[in-house]
Amino acid sequence: MKSNIYRIFAAALLAGYGIAELGGYELPGRVAKGTIAPGSRNASGFRSFSYWNGGK
C-alpha cells in the first residue's frame, strides 16, 4: 500500500515539475540564465585572466 502512495506522489511531483517547466516557471533564487557575475569582467568588458585561471 505504501509503495502505491509513493508512486502516486512521485508521479504527481514529476507532472508538476513538467508543467512548471513547460509554463516557463523558474524557481526563485535561481541566477538568471546568460548573466555573468560583475566581478568576472574588467573595465574593457572582457573576462579577466583570474576568471579563466581560477583566481591564481
Overview of this protein structure:
With 56 residues, the chain is mainly alpha-helical. The protein has one domain (2-52). The chain is built from two helices and no strands. The model has no long low-confidence stretch (mean pLDDT 76).
Tags for this entry?
mainly alpha, 2 helices, elongated, 56 residues
Entry summary:
The protein starts with a helix and ends with a helix. By secondary structure, it is mainly α. The chain has helices at residues 2-22, 49-52.
Q: Assembly type of the shown chains? A: single chain
Q: Could you tell me the mean pLDDT?
A: 76
How far apart are the first and last residues' alpha carbons, in Å? 56 Å
Give me the count of strands. Answer: 0
* Largest sheet entry: none
Q: What sequence of helices (H) and strands (E) makes up the elements?
A: HH
Low-confidence stretches: none
Task: State the domain count.
Answer: 1
Q: What's the helical proportion of residues?
A: 40-55%
Rg from alpha-carbon coordinates: 21 Å
Structural class category:
mainly alpha
Shape: elongated
What's the tally of helices? 2
